[in-house]
Amino acid sequence: MAKPEVTGLILTLNGAKHLDACLASLDFCDQILVVDSGSTDATHDIAAARKARVLVNPWPGPKKQFEFAFTHITTPWVVSLDQDEILSKELRASVINALQDPGDMSAFLCPRTSFYFDRFLRHSGWYPDLLPRVFKLADTGVHVSGPHYGFEPKGKTRRLAGDIIHYPYENLKQHVDKINYYTQIAAEEMHAKGKRAGVATAVGHGLARFMKIYFFRRGFLDGKAGFVLAVNSFFYAFQKYIRLAELGTAKHRDS
Question: What does the DSSP assignment read for 135-174?
Fold first, then answer.
């Protein structure tokens, strides 16, 4: 059986820092498609140097952007990475081997290891973070929860060896900025569904999140990085619910 053709897919927005390494790790793909949301850095030049096809589409949200990308893919298989992700040598070899004869698989699950504070996390609920990033296009949809997305394969999956190397934040300020962004969206969605909260609820969810990350998911084994992540996880949960509480009092404040 002939090896099925595969497209490497990356969505970008000012992602020049890691993009060259990202694209290089996908150089085994028959095609590479970059869907850009309007970058003003060197993203387009880097993609062109790697002979990627670049389409520009203003950001409509993750689901619609992926659906837009999917309509421009002509191969049966896709390997999708974020602009700050790179296939490790081991995972790259695993993907190539799996696609030689994927059989009845709909997708292959890729472990992801993320760099945070001073190390790549191996605990804290952030690893192995199995993601179906190698998938048969006809068998896969996209689901969205707030600003987050994921792929949903309809059939069989199998785990591959190796890791996606992930650099989610350049520094803690960027993480806090993302927390501000994500928690506001989450609070507004919960409020629209009729959910309500108070200060005690926010504190309770924050403490529960800290305990889950640091103790139950063994964040303490990730050293200082695990502790910093657990504290910021408390902040995330607290902010989400305190902002929900704030939305609930807005009517009284404005009246």
Answer: EEGGGEEEEEETTEEEEEESSEEEEPSS-EEE---SSHHH
